[in-house]
């Protein structure tokens, strides 16, 4: 799993030392250079916060590591009666900047391995990772040749557009049936997406472009990445679970993400206030829904209006949300929230933020960090909860029932299900 921090190892190592010994060990010029570099990362460099699967949402017993606690929860937790595990729709594979021309990446999605590569024409292609010849992984040592990917084992070359094999170095003729599975994909809003349908049906809708991102008017300011141990449907369902906002997310972000301490009196002077409404969209956009959020901050009971934020979160399909921010003082931006199924009960969730170029980078980075803290409170719930197919709801929970009915459109008769407990590998 790739761990990106945006800081060099030297800076991190130096800043672990006390300041006074540091000044004794380093020449003044080098110390100043390191200080300026750290200041640059704080003020200008994009935020990169990548969490490992066991980092967030687990409470280890004394003498037990977070990794051990996470594996224990995965083994003992009751799964419940689950919906199909892979809804039909578009899913994010990686950001465009993570795939250079001629580069190939190995990505796990839907419990399978796919090879994602960028041809010399600049287009991204997605194919099955395993060569149909003798099973070598094309993404591990494979080379990009023009717009084809070459197997590292015997040099077979497969075309990205249709998967057809166009070259076998030691064969007189390439059989017509020699080909590899290709996945429908697109590149929009600076990310590569893949289409999944259990019946192999072509995309029935396309992903909308965010004009400000496509035209580079808004600037990339960072991303976060989390792995969550739950069913994919439980994550977007939060948008319709209006009641949880006033309980889980009212405490200030200063109280952190650990639910054991979020309601400590130390941070009770600041409280978030949420006004939320969720509704599905009509035809022809029935695959979309919209959540409108008005956020306010109260400090010692006083309404701090300068920090009021209006957010429109538009969900497109089962796993993509555009969270549009509009603030009278802090400007406008968007967070792309993407949920990608890695395994039946393991989801990779990314948040990428783009913001107005004339707004100092520290502001969208602060927004992203605040969003991350609030999101990790949900992660602690998701990682430990059971899915209840017939929940006990009151009338104030009616949006949850409506969301579940809306979400069923992404399942079909042959959508894959978990027929037995699958704990997967330990982390």
Can you walk me through this structure?
It is built from 8 helices and 19 strands. It has 427 residues and is of the alpha+beta class. Strands 1, 12, 13, 14, 15, 16, 17, 18 and 19 form a 9-stranded mixed β-sheet that branches. A 4-stranded antiparallel β-sheet has the order 6-7-8-9, with no helix packed on it. A hairpin with a 5-residue loop joins strand 4 and strand 5. The protein is globular and about 80 Å long. The model is unreliable at 1-20 (pLDDT under 50).
What's the short version?
The chain has 427 residues and is α+β, with helices and mostly antiparallel strands. It is built from 8 helices and 19 strands.
Helix content: 10-25%
Major β-sheet profile: 9 strands, mixed
Radius of gyration: 23 Å
Strand content: 25-35%
Low-confidence stretches: 1-20
Mean pLDDT: 90
How far apart are the first and last residues' alpha carbons, in Å?
Answer: 11 Å
**Class based on secondary structure composition and strand pairing:** alpha+beta
- Order of SSEs, N→C? HHHEHEEEEEEEEEEHEHEEEEEEEHH
Q: Count of DSSP E strands?
A: 19
Please work out how many helical segments DSSP would assign. Answer: 8
Overall geometry: globular
